[in-house]
Q: What sequence folds into this?
């Protein structure tokens, strides 16, 4: 069966090598006589899986022992509520930077549990650029500052990590593992798995250990990072198959040469697509040059009446999931780690041909 080119924003493409290995091991994992999905999360077999996954992730990101690595149920959106309950005591306030739909949702949910202050927003610019860090009104007594380094929907990305005087909390769902990262700059990093890590249903949380033990009294045990750390991510049954697949993805990245090698590939893919867009009068990027994402590339056609035709013909050509999010329209190509360079070349070839025929 010929696989198609998948540009979905999430659940996203997985490495073919990982899928092939999972397929080969599906009925009999590690000669256990059962699938990994059928083994107890308390068994020595699964303990080896989760421990191996954590060790691999720690190597990829050079995570020190002063940080806990948690594999939790749910997605990143669940952490919008978990963050203020883990970091904010009664009456505390937290700062939020809003650069798109996901950070908007984060501050709305966080405001149910803590005084959530928007200290910078790109709404006035229709979320087409990142607000200059020097314009942020950061509160030195805030419990934390939350931001989204890469906005999946709008295709905005921070080019550097902001330096703030409070614990920095980052929703890295769409950018984690796409390049090297200095984890020590953050208090908390969290990421839904379905972009660069694995299948949906798993969220990875990396939290500095000195921030544990500060949860509000009303924080549910299932959302408590302290409880999760003390129970080694097994307070309740974890998403075992998702963790297994994430571990295979981490190993795939290590075999590739780590995050430096992955960054070089991702830069080439993004450059290829943005160069085509910028050099064409037929396509345009709504995002300013300095704020463009490596992972999510939105673009528009000069004649939007051709949008449906573009999408229909793209799908016929084996190019899937290019429709932009309903809140912004246009097109969007998500080119995460597992999207091969050949897929980006195929997309560019189709775009040139479509422009030639329809422009």
A:
């Amino acid at each position: 069966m010929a696989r198609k080119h998948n540009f979905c924003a999430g659940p996203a493409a997985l490495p073919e090598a990982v899928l092939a290995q999972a397929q080969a091991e599906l009925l009999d994992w590690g000669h256990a006589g059962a699938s990994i999905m059928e083994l107890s999360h308390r068994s020595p077999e699964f303990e080896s899986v989760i421990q191996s996954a954590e060790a691999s992730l720690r190597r990829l990101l050079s995570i020190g022992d002063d940080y806990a690595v948690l594999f939790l149920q749910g997605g990143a959106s669940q952490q919008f509520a978990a963050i203020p309950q883990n970091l904010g005591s009664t009456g505390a306030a937290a700062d939020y930077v809003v650069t798109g739909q996901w950070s908007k949702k984060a501050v709305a949910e966080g405001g149910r549990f803590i005084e959530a202050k928007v200290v910078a927003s790109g709404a006035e610019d229709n979320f087409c650029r990142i607000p200059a860090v020097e314009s942020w009104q950061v509160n030195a007594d805030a419990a934390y500052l939350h931001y989204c380094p890469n906005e999946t929907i709008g295709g905005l990305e921070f080019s550097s990590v902001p330096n703030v005087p409070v614990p920095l909390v980052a929703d890295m769902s769409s950018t984690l593992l796409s390049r090297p990262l200095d984890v020590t700059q953050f208090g908390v990093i969290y990421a839904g798995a379905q972009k660069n890590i694995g299948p949906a249903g798993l969220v990875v949380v990396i939290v500095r250990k000195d921030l544990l033990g500060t949860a509000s009294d009303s924080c549910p045990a299932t959302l408590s990072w302290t409880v999760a750390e003390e129970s080694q991510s097994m307070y309740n049954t974890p998403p075992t198959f998702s963790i297994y697949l994430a571990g295979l993805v981490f190993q795939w990245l290590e075999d590739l040469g780590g995050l430096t090698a992955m960054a070089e590939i991702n830069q080439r893919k993004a450059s290829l697509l943005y160069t085509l867009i910028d050099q064409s009068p037929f396509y345009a990027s709504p995002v300013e040059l300095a704020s463009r994402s490596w992972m999510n590339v939105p673009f528009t056609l000069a004649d939007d009446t051709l949008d449906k035709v573009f999408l229909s013909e793209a799908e016929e050509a084996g190019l899937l999931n290019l429709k932009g999010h309903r809140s912004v329209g246009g097109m969007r190509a998500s080119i995460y780690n597992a999207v091969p360079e050949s897929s980006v070349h195929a997309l560019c070839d189709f775009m040139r041909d479509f422009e030639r025929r329809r422009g």
About this structure: The longest strand covers residues 67-73. The chain has a mean pLDDT of 95. The first helix runs from residue 16 to 25. The CA atoms of residues 8 and 256 lie 23 Å apart.
